[in-house]
Amino acid sequence: MNQVAQKKYRIGLIANRSHQDAQDSALVQLIRGSQQAISFLQPEFVVVGRTLDAMITHGLMEICSQVERFPYGRDGGLMKLVSRVVDHNPLNAVDAVIYLIDPVDPSSIFPEAVALKRQCVIHKKPFLATLASAREWLELEAHSAGAPIDISLNHSFHLQQEGIALIAHDAMKQKMLLLAEKHFTLLDQFKHRYATGTTGGLLNQLAQKIKGEEAGRHWVKPYLSGPLGGDAQLAELVLDREIRRILFLEDPHVARQHEADIQLLERAARTVTEFAQVISEADGVDHWLSNLGKRVDASERRDQ
Most buried residue, 113, 214, 232, 255, by CB count within 10 Å? Predict the structure, then answer.
């Protein structure tokens, strides 16, 4: 295949200790499981200290041959990665960050770890904190660029068996409605759609406009609003593996009184890291939904 015009990605990479030490760790599963996509995309990985040591120990460098080493976390490696997220120089900046987070590792709530995610949202770059999100993102980017599909992932693209959560902060609700309308046909394929509070009601109004009053009335199953516990209700569905994908449009510029609830939902996804994922930025959601539609179509054509 001709890859001359293909985008050259630089991807920040770090994994908490429990996700890098074992032979079947999330880091190993990610790189070995995504070998086809990595081989096609040929990204350069910007890897924080100990994670690179683990890659060398596990013999992963033959798959990830283009690497820039950053210092260990204790020496500022994660802080430097935050700087590369906001850097405007394409030779220095990273285009996405894979941070395989263990929800019980205290380093995942260090200021630099929290800032890393926030700056990814602000600067419209994917922040991939679970094994599932990283594998799917690499697969979708590779397939969109012309790579063949990885059939080992086909099970997760049968949307008629999948649940999805649609959540938006107040300032982002209009963007959620625009995204839902643009990608309505794709979202309509999911077996279940869930939302919190007001967002759920707005989405059902949109569905009634598109599908008709009766057919669209219960298009989304609404739960409580986030501040009243809706995020916790959805977190339980994630832990029970009834929701694989969470579209959570965050407003990073306002203080949020229910920040702990937001973190709880993200933590639930990280607890089932091989299953669930959270996508938190509007442009990223739009891009992801477009690529997801292409991948679903390819999977269906192959199954026919």
Answer: 113
